Amino acid sequence: MAPRAEPLRFPLSLSFKIVALAPQIAVTDAGGTLIAYVRQKLLKLKEAVTVYSDREQTRPAYRIAADRIIDFSAQYHIEDAAGASIGVVRRRGMRSLWRAHYEIARAGHPVLEIHEENPWTKVADGVFGDIPVLGMLSGYVFHPAYRVTYVGSGAPLLRVVKQPALWEGRYTIERAGEGDPEDERLAVLSVLMMLLLERQRG
Fold first, then answer.
1. Is 76 within 8 Å of 65 (Cβ atoms)?
2. Is 80 exceeded by the pLDDT of residue 166?
């Protein structure tokens, strides 16, 4: 994704290499063009990822970094390549098997939320994924979905759906309502961070 909030071409496709030593996410747009690439570094006391515009990781576009050593109340600050703040994403409540809920803020004001659509799907996906051998097939059986909505009105902006895949996580991000390109950019970057934080579910 370019540092400027140009309109994105939805749907976006996310390929999440969950079996890699260092988790990686490649994001392509509706035309198949790579628009973002993330490779999470290991063994860091503070979670921090750089979002690149290329798979070779030569053109950094954004940085997402925790404001403290990882805990349940950490906030993840999103900046562009020049260091300008775009927004903040944080988990609401403690991480659990039941539901994922994240809040997205800009300039200190909550603007968007990420909600689990069907918590029971998440539970089944998590439990089935822990079964030896059979767990490898969980990606073909259960498909957790998330909605990004506006705070207050509840108006939908994006929908994120896990797709059938083996040895990796595949997600599609679709436009679910009308929104400003700045909001879409902030939402997509927040979804990337959310998926990395929720990666143990596959």
1. yes
2. no
Taking every pair of Cα atoms in the chain, the longest distance, rounded to a whole number of angstroms, is 46
Beta strands 156-163 and 85-91 are unpaired
CA distance 103 to 90: 5
Distance CA 40, CA 37 (A): 10
Determine contact, residues 170/15, Cβ cutoff 8 Å.
yes
Average pLDDT of the chain is: 81
- Whole-model pTM: value is 0.83
CB 2 within 8 A of CB 80: no
The burial class, CB within 10 Å (0-12 / 13-18 / 19+), for 80 is buried
C-alpha 170/C-alpha 186 separation (Å) is: 20
pLDDT of 148 strictly over 90: yes
